[in-house]
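To close the section, here is one more complete example, presented without commentary so you can practise reading it yourself. The ligand is magnesium ion.
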Amino acid sequence: MALQPTTDIQYLKGVGPKLASVLRRRGVSTVGDLIEWYPRAYEDRRAARNIASLEDGQVVSLEASVQAIRSMPLGKSHRRIYEVVLADSSGRIACKYFRVPYKGYFERFAVHERVRVAGKVTLYRGRLEFHHPDLQVVYDDDPATVDQLIPIYTETEGLSPAKLRKLLQAAIHELLVTTRPEDMLPGWFREKYGLMTRAEALKQIHKPPSAEAAEFTHYRSRAQRRIIFEEFFWMELHMARRRLGRRNEQAPPMPKPSGLAETLIARLPFRLTGAQLKVFKEIQNDLREDRPMHRLVQGDVGSGKTLVALLSSLVAKDNGFQSAMMVPTEILAEQHFKTAEKFLQPLGVNVACLTGDLNTRERDDVQARLAAGQIDLLIGTHALIEESVSFRQLGLAIIDEQHRFGVEQRMRLKKNISPHFLVMTATPIPRTLAMTVYGDLDVSVIDELPAGRSPIVTRRVFSSKRDPVFQFMHDQVIEGRQAYVIYPLVEESEKIDLKNAVTEFESIQKRFPDLRVGLLHGKMKSEEKDAVMNRFRIGEIQVLVSTTVIEVGVDVPNANLMIIEHAERFGLSQLHQLRGRVGRGAHKSYCVLILGYAISDEAIHRADVIAGTTDGFKIAEADLEIRGPGEFLGRRQSGLPGFKMANLVRDLPILQEARAAARELLERDPDLRQTGQKMIREMLDVQSKSIVG
Ligand code: ADP
Ligand code: MG
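Output:
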């Protein structure tokens, strides 16, 4: 019988039980999966070079022989660096690995053996080297090596590149040549959007024509365009359908203007920024409708999002509805609760807090009052979406720092009638990405910080210069300020030589007996954490030594110094979030990034990005560039489908085309009922299952 895309991989010729299990581990369980194992890169072997001709920044591939394989300790840490030295008649070059790609990776080579190296040439301390290049033993019998444009696949233990290419050709033959499948995109559609057939595209992708070397290397070939377009198209069609579906959803309209909100605005000790007012107005407009609001408010740390959220809850209250505010951590829940009490209690609004660590009696009490409608705003962690929690009339659900809450959780708050959703995030997302990831949300941006904030002075220093930094901290505290000192780890770890919160807390206290130092980390009980946080908030603790539990949303305006040890261990957005804890009051604020020994160029680059700007959007762009969209967003949280070839940054123009195509198609045929669209409908059902968002 002919093989189908859904046929188990073990029925493909050449795949035995052992290879089948290797493939399954790599996520390939069917023949169709195998065909979608796309090349990671293409290597143009016509451009063969010798080592002496290499230049910084080139992406090249060349053959050379192994001269040495060795490992050595990395700086003062316990980690090791691996080096494979290659040579040809023209010179030598080192391939460096900061981690072992997989067990046995280096054991594949012997000295004097011929290998092919592919990667980017990097200038480091005056020398050219490769960092984490692809290394392959040169097989004499590899038929692919006589071709000129070679697809390169991700290294897999137990599967040689030559074997993989052979399997792929077999799969292509079975699925695309022997049986000629109908294309799921109808002919008129392919023609309209300039798409080749999927079968032809797949064939070319795995066996590219040499004449198109440049196009394939840069993902501009027609074959790649077809596959990239298709990946985006399913996602966009899914979102466009969801948008359509929502037209029929019911939400409670809140047409009454809020007297309470006006009162609060009048009583604030400061004026709302123009951006806060603008966004609040947008929210009020949404709330008037009888369709649920789905609005994302982006605003840099400290831009005053919380206040906008509180004002929105007052609109709900004035219209007779309850609000819920979900936050990612207990510390934040506690803090928002305090803020809400401070601003709302005097107006006669009832606020309560529901976190995971209330005892049963307290929980029951909150739940009873909630069900009776005696609580207007309930703040809490995910405890808030548990089945047992029922509101009398939930009208508005506010989700703070949404990147930690999936869309699925949003859905769980919906009962027969949907509340309005307001999502707040301090992780600025480049506009292009926001369109995609939050394709179903309207986006507002608070693009203005409250007046009178002084910019944060940021410096990076190496570990050897720590002492003066702490002296500076001492001086600031003596002047009445407070400081944070952040560590990546809680306790001492034998494996990694990192300064850790617990021991450093002790040593800082010892060095500065005149300062009141506190310790906060994730392993403490929540009452302990709250107690420490409160003592810091009221100034009893002057220096707070902490891990990243402090990260999101903590607000102590008197704190003006943020010291981050081992800053190399943190990502860009995390550093930005941490820095956002200072610069919240009237005092000049500082952030010092202390870098450990033996760190990568990338870590230094990250520190420089942070030192160079406080603009969260710029940092987000840089982050996206460094990490790519998948990592940047974290696939699971974002609900992004796992693209196999498409790249949100590189392929943005194709994304825009695919979106337009999806919308146009639904306009023609909203239910995808017409015969030509039958396969699209079926595919969409399959695809939708993998698209969580
Ligand atoms: P975000 O949640 O956006 O990081 P917050 O809502 O926590 O920011 O606000 C940060 C601090 O700024 C809080 O102390 C808040 O009371 C204060 N704040 C909010 N809006 C203004 C404003 N318009 N002017 C001055 N201070 C403000
Ligand atoms: Mg906040």
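Once you have examined the tokens, check your reading against these statements. The two ends are 38 Å apart (CA to CA). The domain at 259-446 is CATH 3.40.50.300 (Rossmann fold).
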